[in-house]
């Protein structure tokens, strides 16, 4: 299958710099989005460290989970050498494509979506306080979107020790016509799943879909950095 890729990253309206980053390595079939922790020192350094280490490690044959664990330790080590009261941290969401298979791994609340057979599904599940409440049926998914603690993550690289970090994994088969979206929470904070589905189903290029998602997030407030990678698989 042929791959059509679009990617974009924007600081948003209310942030003065962009702590998000993303990486693409077509040779390894690897795509990733990292969201440096807002409110923490050096978030942009943490996301860049994660990106660079993981891209290099996977290229050299390291598994997705092990690459994340190694990146986590590197950020922890680097954070201890920098001034500041809080450790620097980052979320990570990544997908590797090989033949007609995908493998995903994530830590935090950056997300991975799949649009297939006219249906948008979330491959990832947030490592966040509100997602735990949803999983326990204490609040609904709709209530989670406006919860005052919706931005509190329970797992992140650089702030969770390797003995306690939870690296979530998922895999599956790719079909012609499938579209995948990797994004930071700056998108999902402003654009709900129904509107993401509305845009991603359009007969547009991957780049145009990413641009429309970005525009919608900015129109809805642009409260955080916004990063997207859109991947379409074609015959």
Question: How do the helices and strands line up, and which of them pair or pack?
Answer:
Elements: E1 2-10, E2 20-25, E3 30-36, H1 43-59, H2 64-79, E4 90-98, E5 101-107, E6 111-116, E7 119-122, H3 129-135, H4 141-144, E8 168-173, E9 179-183, H5 185-188, H6 193-200, H7 206-219, E10 226-234
Antiparallel strand pairs: 1-10, 2-3, 3-4, 4-5, 5-8, 6-7, 6-9, 9-10
Quick summary of this structure?
The protein is 30% helix and 29% strand. The protein has 7 helices and 10 strands. A 5-stranded antiparallel sheet has the order 1-10-9-6-7. Strands 2-3-4-5-8 form a 5-stranded antiparallel sheet, with helices on one face.
When the domains are counted, the total is 1
Q: What is the C-level CATH assignment?
A: Alpha Beta
Strand line-up in the sheet with most strands: 1-10-9-6-7
Amount of beta strand: 25-35%
Structural account:
With 235 residues, the protein is α+β, with helices and mostly antiparallel strands. The protein has one domain: PPM-type phosphatase domain (Phosphatase 2c, domain 1, 4-Layer Sandwich). The chain is 30% helix and 29% strand. It has a 5-stranded antiparallel sheet. The chain has a 5-stranded antiparallel sheet with strand order 2-3-4-5-8, with helices on one face. A hairpin with a 2-residue loop joins β4 (90-98) and β5 (101-107). α1 packs antiparallel against α2. The protein is globular and about 50 Å long. The model has no long low-confidence stretch (mean pLDDT 91).
């Amino acid at each position: 299958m042929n791959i059509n890729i679009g990617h974009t990253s924007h600081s948003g309206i209310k942030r003065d710099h962009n702590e998000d980053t993303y990486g693409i390595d077509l040779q390894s079939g690897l795509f990733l989005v990292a969201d440096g922790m807002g409110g923490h020192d050096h978030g942009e350094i943490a996301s860049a460290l994660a990106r660079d280490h993981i891209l290099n490690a996977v290229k050299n044959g390291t598994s997705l989970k092990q690459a994340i664990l190694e990146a986590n330790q590197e950020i922890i080590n680097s954070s201890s050498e920098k001034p500041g009261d809080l450790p620097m941290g980052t979320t990570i969401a990544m997908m590797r494509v090989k033949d007609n298979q995908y493998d995903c791994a994530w830590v935090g609340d950056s997300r991975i979506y799949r649009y297939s057979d006219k249906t948008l599904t979330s491959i990832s599940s947030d490592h966040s306080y509100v997602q735990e409440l949803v999983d326990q049926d204490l609040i609904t998914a709709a209530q989670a979107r406006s919860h005052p603690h919706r931005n509190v993550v329970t797992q992140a690289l650089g702030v969770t020790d390797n003995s306690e970090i939870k690296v979530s994994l998922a895999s599956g088969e790719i079909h012609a016509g499938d579209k995948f979206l990797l994004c930071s929470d700056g998108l999902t904070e402003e654009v709900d799943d129904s509107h993401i589905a509305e845009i991603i189903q359009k007969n547009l290029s991957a780049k145009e879909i990413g641009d429309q998602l970005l525009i919608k997030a900015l129109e809805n407030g642009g409260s955080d950095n916004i990063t997207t990678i859109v991947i379409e698989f074609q015959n």
